[in-house]
Amino acid sequence: xxxxxxxxxxxxxxKKARPVQDFSGLKKLAEEMLExxxxxxxxxxxxxxxxxxxxxxxxxxxxDGSEEEERPLRELVRRVYVVANPVITHREGWVxxxxxxxxxxxxxxxxxxxxxxxxxxxxxxxxCPRTLELEGYMARVFQHEIDHLEGRFFFxxxxxxxxxxxxxxxxxxxxxxxxxxxxxxxxxxx
Length: 190
What we know:
- By secondary structure, the protein is of the alpha+beta class.
- The protein has one domain (11-188): Peptide Deformylase.
- Helices cover 29% and strands 29% of the residues.
- The chain has four helices and five strands; from the N terminus they run αβββββααα.
- A five-stranded antiparallel beta sheet has the order 1-2-3-4-5, sandwiched between helices.
- The model has no long low-confidence stretch (mean pLDDT 94).
């Protein structure tokens, strides 16, 4: 199943997600989240982005140069991550980098500050405790997705003047996304 991705303006994206406690259906949910993410040509997707307030996200590491490939993204996956209840236990070094978001399609910033290296503790899709040390791009992806679980968007990481400039530059697009988010919520209502 491919879920509709919730857009900026949807209240679920602003809530702190609840911890995952029941792991019984998590493998199926993670697979559906991955399908949704591949359909949107993403690298990560948090449960709130499909309307579920759970501390869960999926992410993938693609083969180098995969963005130029014409093949389906699933064929280019080097590693899949299913991450429940993540906690960053160590951050090291800071670097600015490019970020976008499936809930903010077409909006980007090249100056989002993130830790260059992180250690994250989490549970896998079966509830088993895991720890990963990540650096570079995947560290950025994990931090971005964990922000979603806290109800935060990447542009809120920008320092004051840069955040204001981002909001000004994308004012019309943000208003349009909020309108689309409201329309999607009406469509999804029972």
